[in-house]
Structures are given as C-alpha cells and as structure tokens.
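A quick aside before the break. I want you to see a complete sequence-to-structure record at least once, exactly as it would be stored in a machine-readable document. Don't worry about memorizing anything.
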Amino acid sequence: MLYKKLYFTCRKMAFLCVLLCLAGIAGAQTNKITFNHHTVENGLSQSSVLSIAQDSTGFMWFGTKDGLNKFNSQTFEIFKHEEKNKASLSSSQNINALLTDHNGNLWVGTQNGLNLYLRESNSFKHFLRKAGDNSSLSSNVIRSLYEDKQGNIWVGTDYGLNKLLKNGRFQRIEGKSPDGTVFKNHLVKSIYQDHEQVIWIAAQEGLTGITAKDNSYAFKTYVHDPGDPLSLIDNDVISVIEDQRHNLWIGTHQSGLELFDRATGTFKPVQPKNTGPYAKTSNVIRKLTLDKEGKIWVGMLDGINIFDPVSNEFILLKHDADVAGSLNQNSIYDIHKDASGSMWIGTYYGGVNVYHVNATPFREYKSYLDRNSLSSNVVSAIVEDAQQNLWIGTEAEGLNYYDRNTGRFRSFKNEP
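That is the input. The structure line, written in tokens, reads:
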C-alpha cells in the first residue's frame, strides 16, 4: 500500500526531487569552481576570445580574432565585415575591446576603427581616424574602451588615448608629468577610474594617473627605475583594478602583480602566503577582474589565479584533462563579471569558459550492474524519512533505500 500511495501522489515530481535532494549531497561534498565551455563546435566564430561584454538586455558579446559574437545562452549570432555592406563591422579582425555604456549602447573596438552597434537595424556606425583631422581617433587600432563615472567614454589605441565628446568628435589626451615625463601617443592597454576619480592608464610605456583639473588634466606617470626597488617593476602595464578596500593593484606583462601605494608613490610586488600547487605561477598577466566576493581574478598566460587581497592567498585554476569542468585552455585574454556575478573567461585557443556562481551542482544517479545503484532509471516517487534518508520508488523494479551517510543504495522487490 505504501508503494502505491507514493506512486500516485509523487510520480510527476519524482525525478526533479531526486535531482534536488541528491544535488544537496553533491553540493555538500565540494565547492570546486567548475566551468561550462562554449567553443567553435557550439557556433563561436573563432577560438581566440579577446574581449567580453554583457549588453543591457542580458545578451553576452564576445570579440574574437575573426568576428563578433552575440550569445543568447543557446546559440550564437555572428557579425563580420562585409565588403559591400557599409553598415557592417568596420573590421572582423582582432576585436580587442567591448563596452556597454550607461545608455545601453554597445561599443566595439576593432583592428580598423571603433563601432557603435545600432540595435534596431542590427548594423554599425563607424568612427575612424582621418588623416589631418585631430578631432578624429588618433589610431584605428583600438586596444581598450572604458566609461567613467561621469559617463565619458575613453578609447585607448595603439597610438594614444582619446575621449569621445558629446558632438561625436574626439579629444586626444596628451600631457606632461611634473617631472617632465610626456604622456603622448602611448599604446593604451587598459583604462580604469578609482574612487578618487583618477583615471589610470595602463600602457606599454608605464602607468599614468590623469586627474581632471578645471578644463584641463593633470598627469602623473610612473615608470621603472633600475636604481629604485620601490619603483614600478615593469613599464609594460596591462591591467589596473581597485579592490573593496580601495587598494590599487597593477598587473604587468612580464613581472606579475604589484600593490601601488598612492601616498608614497611606491610599488610592492605581491608574494603569496601559500605555496605549492595553489600558489600563483605565471608572471605574464593579461587581465584583472574583481568578483562579487571582492577577490581578484588574475588572467594569465598559464591559467587563472584567484587572489584574496585580505589573506594574500592565491587559488590556481588550470586545465586538467581528467576534470571535465576545468578550464579547457590555460591562455587567458579577458575576464568579465556579468550582472549576476558569473565570471566569463576569454581564452586564446579554447573559446569561452564560464563559471556560474549561482549554479546548483547536480549529481546524476543511474542504474548499473553494480548492486550499489538504483534498481531502475525510471523513477516514479521519492520521500525522505525522519533520518533524512531517501526512499525511491521505481517502475517495475521495486523500492530503493538511499543512505546519506554511507552513500549506498539498497533495493527491495516483491518476490512471489
């Protein structure tokens, strides 16, 4: 009678309940970071993902070495330059930068100009350098895009920094530090504004802080000094980020991660407390991104380090051929946190990897020849007893008892 009652009252919800109850078991066993992978086999235009953004409607966008991709969580829509279509992308090659501004506009930085995506017509407006026009871009090779807290859009190129004006023209940002260091025509790799409203420029020629002053700007550039151990360790600066305690962290091309002391103008290389397989590895840094917990994800040539700026400890994430949910490729180019806190990873050969922070870990239980398994894959009902163990009814293969403590199954069948 018990079995019949379970069968008729719970059959419709049984399979879902099994997944949810057993997912709780799996979740209690591990807090490992696992990734889903989106590759050319799933429709991505090309495997080298150089830039990532989420638009105002929730779609994810990926810039690759060949094509721009719009992703709706299931399929990709690909945009490329079309020779006979002036409203297509200005270039398909090396889409190094993507930005969604506060108005919901999507900006696309390519090897040949800046593009504004026009959602209604599914087309693009182009902004290009024009020889002899100093109110156009300083270069068509776009390397970085950033919107500051005042709504200004900054465009970093391989030959200078530009600010987009409200009239659609550009102001080329140039200046000189108090020590005489000139900021002009730098290769700008990333742009960041801190809580003091300083715009930090990570460039191949050093780190520069730009502060608005009346109708002009004040500049301060930091470079490596071989005679000063507290100077910037590497002039080739890749990425800058501020943590939740307003510390400023600097990622360099060849020399790792540094902490910048604004008060003294000095730099300190980061040395992790922990050692062994979970300590940081590569000094070649490509991206710094803050996650929802305040930890810094450090994208490197050889994996990802999750750095806790409070404990000064690193957790290393790398590809593991024996783990399906590991990174599928170690060479990291971009890391983007979406509106839900999920972390999207652009790799150089493996497409996109994503860690969904709110994902429920499911573990699948099936019927096998092994006696320690379900007696059937057709589950009709489930109930939890007072000891929180599970009784699982199947179709034609009897009743199963799952012991949470031992992780073992026991089956009961009618034997006439």
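Two observations worth writing down. The chain has two domains: 2-28+364-412, 33-355. The chain is about 5% helix and 40% strand. We'll return to this after the break.
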